[in-house]
Amino acid sequence: MNFSQNFTPAPEPTGYECGARLESFYNWYAQVHGWASLLVCIFGSIANVLNIAVLTRREMQSPTNMILTGLAVADLLVMIEYIPYAIHMYLYRRPRRDTFTYGWSIFVLFHSNFTQVCHTISICLTVTLAVWRYIAVAYPQRNREWCSNKRTSLMIAFAYVSCPILCIPLYINTEVRPQVEILDERGMSVNLTKFQQMTNSTVASFEGMTKTTLYFVKLTESPMSNVLKDINVWIYSVVIKLIPCVALTGLSIKLVKVLLEAKQRRKKLTTKNIAIKMGNGKEHACEKPKKRRKGNDKERQTDRTTMMLLAVLLLFLFTEMPQGILGLLSVILGPSFFNTCYVMLGDVIDILTLINSAINFILYCAMSRQFRTTFNQLFCKRWRLIGRWMAVPHQPMENNGHTGTNHTVTQVTQV
């Protein structure tokens, strides 16, 4: 997620700044983001629950599906936690004194850390997924040894343990700090320079104005704060974003190359087999095509799975690469770019990340026949059976001692 979106940046008079159009877009989209993110999170929560239910079935057990399950769990946690944040920050309109209380600011601080950790886990598992798939396609003879269920479980556990440790600079670089503001009768903030003569008490009234202490999540102020800020941005933009994106780009190119080579190899084998079939007797023409068809079907299924995972990886790159580039530019161009450019795109970055976390269910249904079949058996078939059972009227007692209702349930269960 966008780690800058929850902070209140300090104004920076010098350096590179984006234009007023971006600020206008930020103000417009802020009115839409709450409902958009809420709808995406509700859909994504349901979709990821369905992903977990399907991928954990016994017939779906495989190292790839284990990683996809771990990915669905991390995305589900992001979705569930983002719902109260969207309601608090965007949908539940109330005065600033009620919005920026100490309790709500603690929640926003927890939100910024928790979502970043969960999304970092998703990134780590996505890279693992790409490596595992490349091994399965490029080195199929070593796949069972290198990508066993045990090693896959260890990699998933490693992601869930190491990513919270990797995000430690984020924890120590942010805090909740008080800020005194002058609020009018509607609870809107007023320029403090007009009230310099007022006392330093927490609340003081002056002609309908109120001096109130609000609380915001800000970067820590200490002798090491600037160093910690740079370390934090470097870790976020380079380690968490750009390095995984570069690795995924290289792996995706290699996967596409392997797919094209496999397609050319199948084309040559098909041509060769047709020539052999025409030159040999009926025995070769009748028996061997069955084996060839099974082999071709297995290769096509492998290609479909690889294409589905490539779609997941490319969607990830489309979402994460811009964040890494913007974070790196924030380090190079300074705080002005961070405050006037990156922060203004924070809501857009968030909605793209949420969509990326929610859309995998659609990709699985569209591109995986096994996923569709298992989903249909797990949900659709049961719903049809329940509907058929409820539609059958009660039958009279039969001579064998069983009631008509129990007989009907037995029949339906056997279908």
From TrEMBL:
Keywords: Membrane, Transmembrane, Transmembrane helix. Its main location: membrane. The keyword Cytoplasm does not apply. Pfam families: 7TM_GPCR_Srw. Residues 282-301 are annotated as: Disordered. It comes from the Eukaryota. GO terms for cellular component: plasma membrane. PROSITE patterns: G_PROTEIN_RECEP_F1_2. Residues 47-364 form the G-protein coupled receptors family 1 profile domain. The chain crosses the membrane at residues 35-55, 67-87, 107-132, 153-172, 233-260, 308-333, 345-366. It is found in: Membrane. GO terms for molecular function: G protein-coupled peptide receptor activity. InterPro entries: 7TM_GPCR_serpentine_rcpt_Srw (IPR019427), GPCR_Dmsr-1 (IPR053219), GPCR_Rhodpsn (IPR000276), GPCR_Rhodpsn_7TM (IPR017452). Belongs to the G-protein coupled receptor 1 family. This is G-protein coupled receptors family 1 profile domain-containing protein. It comes from Atta cephalotes (Leafcutter ant).
